[in-house]
Amino acid sequence: MAARIASLHVYPVKSCRGIDLQRARLTAAGLEWDRRWMIVDGDGRFVTQRENPRLAAISTAIGAGLRLSAAGLPALAIDPAHGGPERRVRIWKDTVTAIDAGEEASDWLLAALGAPLRLVRIPDSALRNAEPAFAGPGPNPVSFADAYPILMISRESLEDLNRRLPAPLPMNRFRPNVVIEGVPPYAEDAMTEFRFGRVAFRGVKHCTRCAITTTDQETCVRDASQEPLRTLKGYRYDPMLKGVVFGQNCVIAAGAGEWLALGAELTISECER
Length: 273
Description:
The protein is mainly β.
């Protein structure tokens, strides 16, 4: 079997549930709709499943705009064309000017998560830049993803990990954008230049993993034994990055405006040796 795209995923609101897609349009900052919204606290600092695992219970849908839903609550519709007030927000070391989604969204988050929070959207004018130490000088724009516009993992890597775990885990624990198949386990680690048709990526940094991987994305419950981090630490610890790694962070080399689709064949131009 030729190496190809097995699944595509976007996460419109950072740390909330993702959407599985048959095809996705690529923008300069990643897949369209991916992590264009983010939840922040009263100080404007980003909030994720690291602090509040209940974010995994918020489902997202995209149509004319963004739609959020959670058990026991009416759905919330957000118009991305709505201007809204500007709000300075912080994500890791970056501070950007985002657009506040308004009081209705804040009230909805209070009901869903039990905390006073705000929903904000990143406009194109405020896009951040991927870490230049790994991605190069750029520009390599990124929205509210942690640091890079695309995360890619192979099915074979997850299958290998699952053979080592006490119980197998689904791919949604790792929240990738692009899942490939038809390669050896961890082959993505070495892919530095590759493409799917007219879309080209550069693999620039292995993805260090955090407590979100220990959170069941259906129940919001953390694994008491800290799996899969515990197992990954035994064979996937990167001393340079000072963490366990699983997946390859990528930036866009060519093809913004093109579409990716399931089954698109992978062509590798360059690998680390």
